[in-house]
Design brief:
Elements lengths: L3 E4 L2 E4 L4 E7 L8 E7 L6 E7 L2 E4 L7 E6 L4 E6 L8 E10 L5 E6 L3 E6 L1
Parallel strand pairs: 2-11
Antiparallel strand pairs: 1-3, 3-8, 4-5, 4-9, 5-6, 7-8, 9-10, 9-11
């Protein structure tokens, strides 16, 4: 089992930057797809970014502004957020997923979330 915990949220002005961290437990951290999702008030949770052995992928709304990275030695994944906009305001959740050999979802873990607020 994997436990994930986010940190690094806060209040920032539009155009500013924040870096979120997600610390994960477990000895097989490197085998998981690690992702970030967010949920704004009154909206559904949405995909932000994911990093896996083959590379990373981003939602169109954050591409070229956010960067996801991973430190396997520290069991930590990061989300560097630059040029923040008020519409980036949301609770940001860290996610860890693993898959079966034929591509089915095997494990799916979520953190408690960290609040990011961008003021205009």
């Amino acid at each position: 089992q994997v436990q994930v915990a986010e940190s690094g949220g806060g209040l920032v002005q539009a155009g500013g930057s924040l870096r979120l961290s997600c610390a994960a437990s477990g000895r097989t951290f490197s085998s998981y797809d690690m992702g970030w999702y967010r949920q704004a008030p009154g909206k559904e949770r949405e995909f932000v970014a994911v990093i896996r052995w083959s590379g990373s992928r981003y939602a169109d709304s954050v591409k070229d502004r956010f960067t996801i990275s991973k430190d396997n030695a520290k069991n930590t994944v990061y989300l560097q957020m630059n040029s923040l906009k008020p519409e980036d305001t949301a609770i940001y959740y860290c996610n860890a997923k693993s898959y079966t050999a034929w591509g089915g979802l095997r494990e799916d873990y979520w953190g408690q979330g960290t609040q990011v607020t961008v003021s205009s």
